[in-house]
Write a structure and sequence with these properties.
single chain, 110 residues, mainly alpha, 0% strand
């Protein structure tokens, strides 16, 4: 996703999600799913997914890996230029209350 290849990232995500979920490692993938949504023009959904990702990292008290940090940084730039800050914060807040299944459904939309 960092290379801006949103279509290829969607295909890879659809393949990876079941495997990562089974291994309990899906949490680290949500930053990249949010970035893919933003690159595809779905910035409100991207903010929802980003909020969900933030809540997982806080819940598990885990730091983001460097590649995840880069996805977060790039997403923040897109959101800053696409939506008012208040709307970004509102969407992020809403994302913390959504279920994993709902977030995955949003993230995998074409």
């Amino acid at each position: 996703t960092l290379r801006g290849e949103a279509d290829a990232a969607l295909v890879a995500a659809r393949e990876a999600i079941p495997l990562l979920r089974d291994e309990g490692m899906l949490f680290w993938f949500f930053d990249h799913l949010a970035l893919r949504l933003a690159l595809d023009g779905h910035v409100r959904d991207a903010a929802l997914v980003a909020g969900y990702a933030d809540s997982l990292f806080a819940e598990f008290n885990r730091p983001r890996e460097p590649i995840g940090q880069e996805a977060v940084k790039r997403l923040a730039e897109i959101l800053r230029t696409s939506l008012p800050e208040s709307e970004v914060e509102q969407q992020r807040g809403l994302g913390t209350h959504l279920s994993e299944d709902r977030i995955i459904a949003l993230a995998l939309r074409a």
